[in-house]
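Students often ask why we bother encoding 3D structure as a string. The short answer is that it lets us treat folding as translation between two languages. Here is a chain of 148 residues written in the first language.
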Amino acid sequence: MAVSEAEIEALALGAMRAWVAGDEKAMKKLTKRDFMCMVGTRPPQLLDRPSFLAAMAEGFACRSFTFREVLVRTHGTSAWFVAAAELKLGLGREEWAGQFLVSDLWKLGSWGGKHKLAERSIAVLDPDEDRARAIQRLQLWNKGGKRR
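And here it is in the second language, the structure alphabet:
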């Protein structure tokens, strides 16, 4: 069963709202049992589903979010959601705020036929616009070029 881009965006919004609300029950319903969250620190850190759900209550809080540029790419019954986002995260007593990249993999669940969040990655965005333009110049569809 294919999924629409709008459905995936709505699911991603629901997951973020559950995180902001600290609603462990709602987040549990939205995530797969083998859910993993990769946090873009050095070195990168992983939180499995039980760790992420516990962390929501123990200080890894999303205080607010705003999605900016949103991209959804469907692949059969799975979909990637990627967004530049303004996040305010609580990490214990510290606040971690700024521009982040949020990337989700949504997969059709085995039971009930609903899409569930399988993977989430959160990383700080590079603020250098010159690098973004340099990467954009590599896109063949922006040059009228041919693919190899």
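Translate back mentally: The chain has a mean pLDDT of 91. Keep this in mind for the problem set.
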